[in-house]
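PROTEIN DESIGN WORKSHEET
SECTION A - STRUCTURE
LENGTH: 105
TOKENS:
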């Protein structure tokens, strides 16, 4: 496990990302980033010489999987009725909008 990221680099990255890191967060982030980078180092050791070249992701997908776009009319009607009940139970409305007292005067 070689050190691939240090505190100075992390501070620079935090500055670029415009985030303020507390000391505890910094320690955890350093540890997490180091583990991620170590994992990439392990991946570099893999022998990919016999791996088949994948030029297009669609080569691995046998077919498109789509669902029919159906409207459940009963459910839609219930939703409309529920909205109507909510609007009807509100003390004051204007058209389909709910009127509330002003927040700022």
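SECTION B - SEQUENCE
RESIDUE ASSIGNMENT:
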């Amino acid at each position: 496990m070689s050190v691939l990221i240090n505190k100075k680099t992390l501070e620079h990255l935090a500055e670029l990302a415009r985030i303020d890191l507390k000391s505890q967060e910094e320690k955890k982030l350093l540890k997490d980033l180091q583990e991620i980078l170590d994992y990439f180092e392990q991946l570099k050791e893999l022998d990919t010489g016999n791996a088949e070249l994948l030029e297009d992701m669609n080569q691995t997908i046998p077919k498109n999987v789509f669902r029919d776009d159906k409207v459940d009319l009963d459910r839609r009607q219930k939703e409309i009725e529920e909205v109507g009940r909510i609007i009807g139970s509100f003390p004051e409305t204007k058209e389909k909008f709910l009127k509330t007292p002003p927040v700022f005067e």
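SECTION C - NOTES
Helices lie at 7-17, 23-44, 73-89.
The mean pLDDT is 85.
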